[in-house]
């Protein structure tokens, strides 16, 4: 790997990744930087100081996004945006999101060192609350800047009852001023994101980096099933309306549905469950759980969702339960722009290694940005495919290659004279 030379500065990049990982650090390699938390703020301020150090004009917008801007020779032109996020899962790792923001800073710094003046403005962005684990709804900052927030989002509360509105205010943001942080239509020329793969595909292929073809669409639901509580010692089995037994059957149904079409990349998961009253000797009265269903093929996902709803209805009837379903997120698959993939392919071939193309199962801020501009993504190999965990690991050699491809792509993109006409 050392034989591959890159234009970016790996040592500098590695130092920044290491320094940022100390904020909200848990154990040896874990990170907990929940969105809009004290640790998140500290991280944002650190990254902001690096942006300023290299000469970007940096600010925190009212959605909690950190933006570093390089004006270029036509400040009024649509911006080329590069970025990702620096918030983490509660028990997360140091690479998810972070390499996309720090890699973008590195790519820009390398361009600056080559005395290039971009024709259009370049912005490096660390989006606020990509993960969604604190308020059960992610991609907040990216949805914010393109005007895709939903009714009632600011009133969503975390486990401690703190609403997003309050958390934003505590972060120094003003929800009353959201409008001023939005981008006008056509204001973003293109978006590029570097990210860890968070899956095992690149490792299995023996490839350090990959070019993303698109992002599969997640459906997130919260299901609540309600039965009747009772003493576990006195209510006979045939007279029970046990909400947890019903929920267990639906969870298994989801697992089986997601496997039902051989070869399909469909994935279905229940990752969170809460039982009321949660006691050893009371029959569960109420259970709520999350559903996460993803697919590249939207029609197939719709079909599976219908079958899941039928399993929910049938099980509820069988066990005398009532239920509600709340849709938290519903995104369709979104494909990367061909012309950006073309540049990446071209640049990757000059790196002298095969760079495979692959879909993204996880969603990213790029998914949101795809609604307002063309986008491209680069993946970096994840060891054992692990992410959202302290064991998450990508080598600095791999990250450097990914960052270099990002840099090469930006550089090429800026030098294209037909740039204005290359996208709709
Ligand atoms: Zn991420």
Characterize the structure shown:
- It is a single chain.
- The chain is of the alpha+beta class and 424 residues long.
- It folds into two domains: 10-215 and 333-421, 3-Layer(aba) Sandwich (Aminopeptidase), CATH 3.40.630.10; 217-330, Alpha-Beta Plaits (2-Layer Sandwich).
- The protein is built from twelve helices and 16 strands.
- Strands 3, 4, 5, 6, 7, 8, 14, 15 and 16 form a nine-stranded mixed sheet that branches.
- Strand 1 (25-26) and strand 2 form a beta hairpin.
- Helix 10 packs across helix 12 (396-415).
- It is globular, with a radius of gyration of 23 Å.
- It starts with 9 loop residues before the first helix and ends in a 9-residue tail after the last helix.
- The relative contact order is 0.18.
- The model is unreliable at 420-424 (pLDDT under 50).
- The structure holds zinc ion.
- Zinc ion binds at residues 85, 96-97, 130, 195, 364.
- Residues 85, 96-97, 130, 195, 364 line the site of zinc ion.
């Amino acid at each position: 790997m050392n034989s591959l030379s890159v234009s970016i500065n790996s040592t500098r990049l590695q130092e920044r990744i290491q320094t940022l990982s100390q904020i909200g650090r848990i154990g040896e390699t874990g990170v907990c930087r929940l969105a809009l938390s004290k640790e998140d703020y500290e991280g944002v301020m650190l990254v902001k100081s690096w942006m300023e150090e290299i000469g970007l004009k940096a600010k925190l917008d009212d959605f909690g996004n950190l933006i570093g801007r390089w004006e270029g020779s036509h400040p009024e032109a649509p911006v080329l945006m590069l970025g990702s996020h620096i918030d983490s899962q509660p028990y997360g790792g140091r690479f998810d999101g972070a390499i996309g923001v720090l890699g973008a800073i590195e790519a820009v710094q390398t361009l600056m060192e080559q005395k290039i003046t971009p024709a259009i403005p370049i912005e490096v962005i660390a989006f606020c609350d990509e993960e969604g684990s604190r308020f059960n709804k992610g991609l907040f900052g990216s949805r914010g800047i393109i005007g895709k927030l939903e009714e009632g989002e600011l009133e969503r509360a975390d486990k401690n009852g703190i609403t997003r509105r309050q958390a934003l205010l505590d972060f120094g943001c003003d929800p009353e001023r959201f409008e001023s942080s939005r981008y006008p239509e056509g204001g973003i020329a293109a978006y590029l994101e570097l990210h860890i793969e968070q899956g095992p595909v690149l490792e299995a292929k023996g490839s350090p980096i990959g070019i993303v073809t698109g992002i599969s669409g997640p459906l997130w639901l919260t299901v609540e099933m309600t039965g009747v509580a009772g003493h576990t010692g006195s209510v006979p089995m045939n007279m029970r309306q046990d909400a947890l037994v019903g929920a267990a059957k639906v969870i298994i149904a989801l697992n089986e549905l997601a496997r039902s079409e051989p070869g399909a990349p469909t994935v279905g998961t229940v990752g969170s469950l809460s039982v009321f009253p949660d006691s050893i000797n009371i029959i569960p009265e109420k259970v709520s759980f999350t559903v996460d269903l993803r697919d590249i093929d939207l029609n197939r996902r719709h079909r599976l969702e219908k079958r899941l709803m039928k399993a929910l209805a049938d099980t509820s009837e069988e066990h005398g339960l009532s239920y509600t379903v709340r849709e938290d997120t519903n995104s369709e698959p979104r494909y990367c722009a061909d012309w950006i993939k073309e540049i990446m392919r071209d640049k990757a071939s000059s790196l002298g290694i095969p760079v495979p193309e692959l879909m993204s199962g996880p969603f990213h801020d790029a998914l949101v940005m795809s609604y307002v501009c063309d986008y491209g993504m680069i993946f970096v190999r994840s060891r054992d495919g692990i992410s959202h965990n302290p064991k998450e690991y990508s080598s600095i050699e791999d990250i450097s290659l990914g960052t270099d491809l990002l840099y090469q792509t930006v550089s090429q993109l800026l030098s294209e004279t037909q740039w204005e006409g290359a996208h709709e």
